[in-house]
Amino acid sequence: MTEDVFDAIIVGAGVAGSSAAYRLARAGLQVVLIERGPFPGSKNLSGGVLYGRVLHDLIPNFWESAPVERVITNQIVSFLTADSSVNLDFKTEAFNQPPYNGFTVLRARFDRWLAEQAEAAGVMLVPGIKVDGVVKRDGKVVGISADNEEMLAKVVIAADGANSFIAQQAGLRDKIPAGHAAVGVKEVIGLPREVIEERFHLNGNEGAAYNIVGFATRGVPGGGFLYTNQESLSVGLVIHLEALVERQLKPAEIFEDFLAHPMIAPLIKGGKLLEYGAHLVPEGGLKMMPPLAADGLLLVGDAAGFGVNNGFVVRGMDLAIGSAVAAAETIIEAQAADDFSAARLHSYPDRLEKSFVMQDMRTYARAVDFMKNDRLFEAYPTLLSNILADIYRQDAQPKKNLAPTLLKNLKTSKISLLDLLKDALAGGRAL
Amino acid sequence: MNRLPVTEKLAVNKYELDEGHPHIAVNEEVCRAKCKNLACLYVCPANVYSEQNGRIMADWAGCLECGTCLVACPSDALQWVYPRGGFGVIYRSG
To answer: What is the CATH number of the domain that holds A53?
Structure first.
């Protein structure tokens, strides 16, 4: 490799890496984007809903050329018990208007497209190369090494995902503690377009997103999801790792039970397995956030631990893109001032604080712990289901009004009135 | 179509196998001496790890490269890196 010094080297061509690369190249910087997979997207997997406003700001009307699957118009929260389900089902045509609220995407296709946009903007894309680590001189990151060769840059962006070996090797963080990680498992299940549209009540390119809480994970903290793509479904679970280890359960077996659940089974019936994948999900929120900037190095996306799960929506890609844009703008300023000092790069976390990225991380900081509340996974879905069963059941026995029905069910549930009040208050604040 | 064993699910995936270059190594002495829960045997979504004749084996070819085992391993007995550039699982949907 040459002794040229590039303006920026970005490790990892996921949505964060390619967004940063695109933004930098558009500002005229010389950028190298390195991807370990044979093509961008080949190592990437996520639940699959992209809340795209931040990408629209970066690439206006991206949906016109990007391989998006469906526009999410139906948002469903589902509480499961072993044999019943209670759904909150929201559908609005308002989400079906440009710039659209959210899309399903399949990352292998979408990330490839995004990297192509970066390439077209002038980024040098290098796929099929695994970066071994950063190169440091006098404590400052000055480039990367791969296959025993060095490549130098004024700044390196680690966009290498939840495991971020780059950030670890640079000394910014350790591996994620099991208490702050979840494992995501997912199947992509093929079904004809017409079947999907009929089964999920979709007109044309509308799509549905289910977030599923409760028996989905056999009571282990976590949740399920089911998203509609054009001709497939993305179905999966995200399970907290520490609880999984404690209870000695296998994710693949919990997943099989989930797929066989009477609410899920008919939704995937007749489908053909197209792919089985897994991904580590950083779920520590603010608690596990590493330093985001070091001398010569910035962290973006999953590598920095950006993610939000408040039970209604699960977000990662929009925060990844938002952080990438903030990192790129920091670097563009550094380039203009010809100042790549640590002090200058440390304006990146400040910039993030002003953006929706850190503000949302703070808004939902308490959601991380709230979403691990055991009552959420068994007691509440059961309570809801029992109340509704009492309301709907007609068995030639005298009925009771709503208030006594609620009280009776609360009394027989495992939830004390105090728990209920505490959880309602905590939930109202956390979610 | 569902209720498939994990091996059959993995068979649907695309892999570029890096023959002769395992990216996972298990330090069994550490496992035997220190490990309190053998978390690798159940946390892996691809069931890469198994115990055979008292040894922990890693069938690394089916690895989905999520890194869950590394995070869950309580005794730092795993040497787990990404496969060499271009190799390993190749997601077509993702």
So the answer is: 3.50.50.60
CB contact under 8 A, B1 and A108: no
Does B46 sit within 8 Å of A260, measured CB to CB? no
pLDDT in tens, A141-170: 999 999 999 999 999 999 999 999 999 999
Residues with pLDDT less than 50, chain B: 1-2
User: What kind and span of H or E run contains A15?
Assistant: helix A15-26
The answer to whether A205 and A185 are in contact (CB under 8 A) is: no
Q: Does the B6-84 domain belong in CATH 3.30.70.20?
A: yes
Note whether A256 and A336 are same-domain residues. Answer: no
**Distance separating alpha carbons of residues A272 and A50, to the nearest angstrom:** 24
CA B6 to chain CA centroid, nearest Å: 12
Instruction: Quick: pLDDT tens for A316-369.
Output: 999 999 999 999 999 999 999 999 999 999 999 999 999 999 999 999 999 988
**In this structure, is residue A401 part of a structural domain?**
yes
Closest-CA residue of chain B to A244: B43
Q: Do A217 and A232 lie in a common domain?
A: yes
Residue ending a domain, among A365, A386, A412, is A365
For residue B94, give the chain A residue with the closest CA: A45
Q: CA torsion B14→B20→B24→B30, rounded to 10°? A: 150
Chain B residues within 8 A of A244 when measuring between CB atoms: 42-43, 72
